[in-house]
Structures are given as C-alpha cells and as structure tokens.
C-alpha cells in the first residue's frame, strides 16, 4: 500500500474528512490559520517526543498564538497524566489497555515506529552476530529466563566467555512493553540493569562493550547520518531461525529499517503504531491540532524518521475525531 504522501489523490479526501470531523463539533476547523490561540500540554513516550516537537513547531508556525509544553517521561507517564487531566495529550507507544479505555482514555493512532535490539559496536563477537543474527528464542533466554548469560553462548562459541551485560528501562514505557511482548512477556519480566529513558538506555549500551538493550527507531539511528548512533549497532533478528542474518534482516541504515517496518517485513511487535491519548474525546484546539497531524502534519513524518500509517489507518484515525 502506498503511503499518503506518495498517493496525492488520497490527501484531499482525507483533508476534507478532517475539516468535516472537527467542524461537526463546532470547534475551530483546520482551514483557519492565524486566529487560534491557547496552550496544549503534552507528555509521555520518548518514542513520540521527537515527532511531537516537530509537529508542534510546524503547527505553531501556522497558529502563532498556540503554545506547546511538551515533556518526555515514558508511555506510562503520558497515559497517567492524560487520564487525570494533568496534560491535554498523552503520547503512548504501546497498545491501549481495556482498563485504560474504561477510565476514559481516547486514543488516536498517528504514526508508526519500531523497537530494535541494540548492542555495543565493540562487542567481542560482533562479526558472528552480524553473520548469524539472533533468534526470538535466544532473546527470550537473554532477557527473560536468563538461560543465556555469555556472548559465546549466543553465537555457539565455547571459547568466548564474556558475560552479557543486560540493560532495560526503569520507566513504564512503550518500548519495553513492546519488546517484552515480542518475546512473550511484559515489561516487568525483562531482566537487566534498569535505566531511565531511551537516551539513558542507549548511553548505557554504547559505554559498555558487553552491553545489550533496545531502542526506538529515532534513538537507535543517527538522524543526520542515517547510520546507527556512534558506538551502537543494530542486532539483526533471525526471523526465520535459519541460523544466519539474511540480507533484509541486516538493518545497517535508518532507511533500511524504515523500509522493513513500512513493508511489514520487520515483525510486529516490535513494530507498532504510536498513539495520542486524551481524557475523553478531544475538542477545541486539541482536536484541531490532532486533525492537522493526521493531514498536513503527515508531510513531516518521513523527514523526522518515522513511518506513515496506511491510508486506511489514517482514515480510521480521522473518523475518530468526528
């Protein structure tokens, strides 16, 4: 399925739908430009933080009287803040739970991202890892059951005894929940030294040559070079368990990672949609902003290193604004 930007015939109809959606409630429409004013407070997932700051900047350029207060602190914080009304929008990088919907969480998918296993670029068996990849079963034994404790065990080399230094997230977050879901558990099941935030987890790995963790797309890859962040490497997932890292499993650049996620070749999870959550159905400038995110705001998704939802998914999100 072509994305929205590559299929320009779809954009006008979705844009019209957004106008109808926000207009039905008597709120400002996305056609208005300089007359909106107010403030929008946002908190939550590190995964969405870079994208949200870009969206906020572009929307503010259109509506200079609309100000944003954006903070990252994990998907759990975003959900909690949204439900109690501490913020207008929560950024959540995982599936919304039934109990959260029961409490009034109203969620709208806005873009797509993925979590990638990250290791240190000086790993003692790096060449073996790039040749063989790592299976889902082995990730379970590393992150959950602790049956695999050395890098030699990972690649089948008895001569290598370097122990695995495992890192995970200390904050309730979508990245940890999504990675855990991929290997059959929940965040609390993940072992390792707990570190706060996406940047903190990445830093722990790049400063420890025996380290392994997991990071969202926008943190695993350098936004300027398109390569893994200096000192880190993306560990290939041996999806078909054939004992080698196939060409489409070696994600050496951000462009390759985006293509694999966009085409569905990267497993889901750890690929997943990213959501904006409000306490009940959004209105006013919050609804206008989300409507803009789903239409004109999609122009910036690729530039910011994220993956667009399909046209059907975008249409479903726009319908939720009606």
Describe this structure in words.
The chain is an alpha/beta fold and 322 residues long. 35% of the residues lie in helices and 19% in strands. The protein contains 13 helices and nine strands. Strands 1, 2, 3, 4, 5, 6, 7, 8 and 9 form a nine-stranded mixed β-sheet that branches. It is elongated. Residues 1-33 have low confidence and may be disordered.
For this structure, the CATH topology of the largest domain is D-Maltodextrin-Binding Protein, domain 2
- Element order: H for helix, E for strand: HEHEHEHEHHHEHEHEHEHEHH
CA distance, first residue to last residue: 25 Å
The percent range for strand residues is 15-25%
Structural class: alpha/beta
Helix content: 25-40%
Could you give me the name of the CATH homologous superfamily of the largest domain? Periplasmic binding protein-like II
In terms of quaternary structure, the protein is single chain
CATH architecture tag of the largest domain: 3-Layer(aba) Sandwich
Radius of gyration: 20 Å
Number of helices: 13
Mean pLDDT score: 90
| DSSP summary, beta strand count | 9
Whole-number count of domains: 2
Largest sheet: 9 strands, mixed
């Amino acid at each position: 399925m072509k994305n929205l930007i590559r299929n320009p015939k779809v954009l006008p109809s979705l844009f019209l739908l957004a106008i109808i959606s926000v207009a039905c409630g008597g709120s400002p429409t996305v056609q208005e430009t300089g007359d909106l004013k107010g403030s929008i407070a946002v908190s939550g997932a590190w995964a969405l933080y870079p994208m949200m700051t870009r969206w906020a900047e572009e929307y503010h350029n259109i509506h200079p009287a609309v100000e944003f207060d954006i903070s990252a602190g994990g998907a759990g914080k975003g959900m909690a803040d949204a439900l109690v009304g501490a913020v207008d929008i929560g950024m959540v990088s995982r599936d919304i739970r039934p109990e959260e919907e029961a409490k009034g969480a109203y969620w709208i998918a806005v873009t797509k991202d993925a979590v990638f296993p990250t290791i240190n670029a000086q790993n003692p068996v790096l060449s073996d890892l790039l040749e063989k990849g790592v299976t889902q079963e082995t990730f379970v034994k590393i992150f959950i059951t602790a049956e695999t404790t050395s890098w030699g065990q990972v690649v089948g080399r008895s001569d290598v005894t370097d122990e695995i230094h495992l890192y995970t997230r200390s904050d309730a977050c979508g990245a940890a929940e999504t990675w855990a879901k991929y290997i059959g558990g929940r965040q609390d099941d993940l072992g390792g030294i707990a570190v706060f935030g996406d940047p903190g987890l990445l830093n722990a790995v790049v400063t420890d040559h025996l380290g392994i963790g997991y990071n969202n797309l926008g943190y695993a890859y350098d936004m300027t070079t398109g390569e893994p962040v200096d000192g880190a490497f993306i560990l290939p997932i041996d999806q078909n368990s054939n004992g080698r890292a196939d060409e489409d499993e070696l994600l050496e650049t951000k462009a390759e990672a985006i293509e694999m996620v966009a085409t569905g070749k990267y497993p889901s999870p750890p690929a997943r949609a990213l959501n904006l959550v409000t306490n009940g159905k959004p209105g006013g400038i919050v609804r206008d902003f989300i409507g803009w995110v789903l239409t004109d705001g999609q122009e910036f998704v690729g530039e910011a290193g994220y993956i667009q939802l399909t046209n059907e998914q975008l249409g479903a999100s726009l319908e939720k604004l009606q």
